[in-house]
Design a protein that fits this description.
Low-confidence stretches: 96-107, 200-223
Radius of gyration: 20 Å
Mean pLDDT: 85
Largest sheet: 4 strands, antiparallel
Helix content: 25-40%
Number of helices: 5
Structural class: alpha+beta
Strand content: 15-25%
Strand order of the largest sheet: 2-3-6-5
Number of strands: 7
Order of helices and strands: HHEEEEEEEHHH
Number of domains: 2
Distance between the termini: 29 Å
Length: about 220
């Protein structure tokens, strides 16, 4: 079972660092553990945001809040663990993730916008009552990561650690090399995830999706 410490030590090994981190929460006191405590959460969230993955995709009925908009009928709090809002769906789709629904249920993604309220909280605006959000969640337990995602995350973390650990031109070169390895692996992981689903859906830029622009897609899946 992979742990956060395993990911950190693997990243350090990519840089030729022989130090062994035993804890980053709290940091054990070594320079390596301090660097890992600083950069690991950033690297994890960046990698999670790259593309939707089965282990990080969730759906949740949203909690309504005061609507500050005159253009939308409803306002909802964004879930605390939401990194990327993928799709807004009717309330009927709150059933088991991955379930098959009748064509009449998923006629189109629902239009929505995201903004910040006066208290600094992110909210979701839409015209749908009891809306359900499909989103990429912040997953903090690395035991849930796929093996390929873990490998990619290690390279991304190594690219962040290269400057502080190696410094100078050597650190810059190592950062570039490890980031390139990360991009190659994360692209492979994205392709593998896409191949594991029969749901074919055209990419819609977030700005267009928020305006309700929908494209043809397979409507017999809940994703």
């Amino acid at each position: 079972m992979v742990t956060v410490v395993d990911c950190c030590n693997l990243a350090l090994s990519k840089l030729g660092d022989r130090g062994t981190v035993t804890s980053i929460s709290p940091p054990e006191g070594s320079a390596q553990s301090d660097h890992c405590a600083r950069f690991y959460p950033i690297a994890r969230d960046v990698a999670l945001e790259e593309f939707p993955q089965s282990f990080s995709t969730r759906r949740e009925t949203l909690t309504q809040t005061t609507n500050p908009s005159g253009s939308w009928s409803y306002a909802y709090f964004k879930p605390n663990d939401c990194l990327v809002a993928l799709r807004l769906l009717p309330s009927a789709t709150v059933a088991t993730p991955g379930a098959i629904f009748e064509d009449t249920v998923l006629s189109a993604d629902l239009p929505f916008e995201m903004e910040t309220d006066s208290a600094g909280r992110e909210i979701i605006l839409t015209n749908e009552p009891d809306a359900v959000l499909l989103f990429t969640a912040r997953v903090t337990d690395p035991a849930r990561f796929s093996a390929l995602f873990t490998d990619a995350l290690v390279f991304l973390l190594a690219s962040y650690l290269a400057g502080p650990v190696l410094k100078g031109k050597t650190g810059e070169a190592a950062a570039r090399a490890n980031y390139a390895a990360y991009k190659a692996l994360i692209s492979k992981a994205a392709a593998r995830t896409a191949n594991q689903s029969n749901h074919k859906r055209e990419y819609v830029p977030q700005g267009l999706a928020a305006r309700g622009v929908a494209f043809a897609r397979n409507r017999r899946t809940g994703y």
